[in-house]
Design a protein that fits this description.
The protein has 272 residues and is mainly β. 11% of the residues lie in helices and 43% in strands. It is built from five helices and 14 strands. The protein has helices at residues 54-57, 80-91, 144-147, 170-173, 176-181, and strands at residues 19-24, 33-39, 60-68, 71-75, 96-103, 109-126, 129-141, 156-157, 185-191, 207-213, 219-225, 235-241, 248-257, 260-270. The strands form three sheets. Strands 3, 4, 5, 6, 7, 8 and 9 form a seven-stranded antiparallel beta sheet that branches. A five-stranded antiparallel beta sheet has the order 10-11-12-13-14, with no helix packed on it. A two-stranded antiparallel ribbon has the order 1-2. A hairpin with an 8-residue loop joins strand 1 and strand 2.
C-alpha cells in the first residue's frame, strides 16, 4: 500500500533494535518478501562522555547524508525518518500535501510523494563548518513487484545542495565497486524544533579516519567526528561489506551517548 501521512506509526528517533527485518507485503503473494535484515550490531567499549546526553538528543534525528560532489541523498531504509516526520508534522502543524504519481523505468512504477510547504531544516557537520539545508519532500515507490525489479526499494529524499563538496579521487572514480562499497557520508542532524535545539551553534568539526575497539577486542575501521573539539569522538560510522559476488553494504552510525556507543541509524545497499 502507499505510505500513509501523517497517520501511521509516528515517533522520535529510537536506538536501533538488535534485529531489524524490512519486508514488503503484497496481497498478490502469499509470503511477504524480505528486502533486508539488520542484526549483529557490534558492541563497542565505553568511552568518555562528551557532547551528547539523553536530554539533548531526545528531540534530534541523527543520521548520515550521502554526498557525491555537491549532490545530497538520504535513504530511509527502516522508515525511522518517516516516523519522525509524521511526528514533527502533526505536533508542529506543518503544511504539506500528498501526491500520487508514477514513472516509467520499465513499466509503470507508482510512487507516493509527501511535499511540505516550507523546507524542513537539517544541519551537516564537515570541513569545520555547519552547513544548513532543508528537505521539502519524501518519496516512495511502493509496489513490491517494482521494489524487487527496477524502482528504488526504499523511500528517499534529496536535501538541497550546499557549498559542501566531497569527491572521490580520479583513481577511485574509475572503480565502480570501490564507490559502491565506500559511500561518502556527512554527519547530519534534523532537530524536532529549531527553537529548542539544545546543541551549541558554534560547533566546528571535520570527519576523519578512526577505529573503535569492540567489547570482544576487535578493531573496526571507520570514520569518526569530534563535534566540540574536546578530543573525544562524538560519533562513529563504518561500512560492513558482505562477502559475496553481489555488492552488499550496511553503513552503521553510532553516537557517544554519555560514554556509551549507541547504534542510532543505518543504511543498506545491495547491487541489483
Amino acid at each position: 500500500m502507499p505510505l500513509t501521512f501523517p497517520d501511521g506509526d509516528a515517533s522520535l528517533q529510537q536506538p536501533l533494535a538488535d534485529k531489524i527485518e524490512v519486508i514488503c507485503k503484497d496481497p498478490q503473494y502469499s509470503t511477504p518478501e524480505k528486502l533486508h535484515e539488520l542484526k549483529n550490531n557490534p558492541k563497542f567499549k565505553k568511552t568518555k562522555s562528551s557532547i551528547f546526553t539523553k536530554e539533548n538528543t531526545k528531540n534530534l534525528y541523527i543520521f548520515l547524508t550521502h554526498i557525491d560532489s555537491t549532490h545530497l541523498y538520504l535513504e530511509d531504509c527502516d522508515y525511522s525518518l518517516l516516523k519522525f516526520l509524521r511526528h514533527k508534522t502533526v505536533k508542529q502543524n506543518l503544511g504539506y500535501k500528498v501526491v500520487d504519481s508514477a514513472t516509467y523505468f520499465v513499466n509503470e512504477e507508482k510512487l507516493r510523494l509527501v511535499r511540505w510547504n516550507k523546507g524542513i531544516n537539517m544541519k551537516m557537520f564537515e570541513n569545520n563548518t555547519v552547513f544548513e539545508t532543508t528537505i521539502d519532500n519524501y518519496i516512495e515507490y511502493w509496489e513490491c513487484s517494482n521494489k524487487f525489479d527496477y524502482s528504488p526499494k526504499y523511500p528517499y529524499t534529496y536535501p538541497k545542495r550546499t557549498p559542501l563538496r566531497m569527491n572521490y579521487t580520479d583513481e577511485q572514480n574509475e572503480d565502480l565497486a570501490y564507490i559502491l562499497k565506500n559511500p561518502i557520508m556527512v554527519f547530519s542532524i534534523m532537530p524536532f524544533d529549531d527553537m529548542t535545539y539544545d546543541l551549541p551553534y558554534n560547533l566546528e568539526a571535520s570527519s576523519r579516519k578512526e577505529e573503535l575497539e569492540t567489547a570482544s577486542g576487535k578493531n573496526i575501521d571507520g570514520t569518526g567526528i569530534d563535534l566540540d573539539n574536546d578530543k573525544i569522538l562524538d560519533a562513529f560510522w563504518f561500512n560492513e561489506v558482505q562477502d559475496s559476488q553481489i555488492i552488499e553494504v550496511i553503513t552503521r552510525l553510532y553516537v557517544n551517548l554519555e560514554g556509551k556507543w549507541i547504534p542510532i541509524w543505518y543504511t543498506y545497499f545491495r547491487e541489483m
